Amino acid sequence: MSKRVLIRRVGPEDEQILEGSIDLVFLLLLFLVIMSSFQVLVGSSVHPPKKLDQELLVDNDRDIILKVDPTSQVVAVFRKQQYPLAMESLFQDGLEKLKVFLSLSREAKVVVLADYGSNFGVVNTLELICTQLGITPYICYERGQT
């Protein structure tokens, strides 16, 4: 007993449908490539520590510490005195205070202490302020309260 195998032959109508859909896909792809615009995003450069277990020594009399709490309030600590930064004008207020602090202590490091729950935009703004002044801040994230 032999088994019958049915083979369907492709007619000219099926080939036209397939060719038309391939043409349509390529035209849509070409249209999307031509009409799309590409934008190069430029970010700030990050300088990671040379070793992952490198410790950061902070001198409380010389260095500037910017504390960011989970509610995104920023306090600058300089020579053991606390100076809150205005959130409404964080960039301008932070820029002015850091200029004064850096003029008083030329070898100062800027350390940003942020809680893991802190707003990343605030930390990024503090980094931009430091970059504007030509210094690279040390950014440290901590668990719990700062």
Please outline the major beta sheet.
5 strands, mixed
- Number of DSSP-assigned strands: 5
Percentage of residues in helical conformation: 25-40%
Radius of gyration: 30 Å
Q: Which fold name corresponds to the CATH topology of the domain at 64-142?
A: Nucleotidyltransferase, domain 5
Q: Give the H and E element order.
A: HEEEHEHE
Strand fraction: 15-25%
Unreliable spans? none
Q: Kindly provide the name of the CATH class of the domain at 64-142.
A: Alpha Beta
Global geometry: elongated
Which CATH architecture of the domain at 64-142 is right? Answer: 2-Layer Sandwich
What average pLDDT do the residues reach?
79
Strand arrangement in the largest pleated sheet: 3-2-1-4-5
Structural class: alpha/beta
Distance between the termini: 85 Å
Q: How many DSSP helices?
A: 3
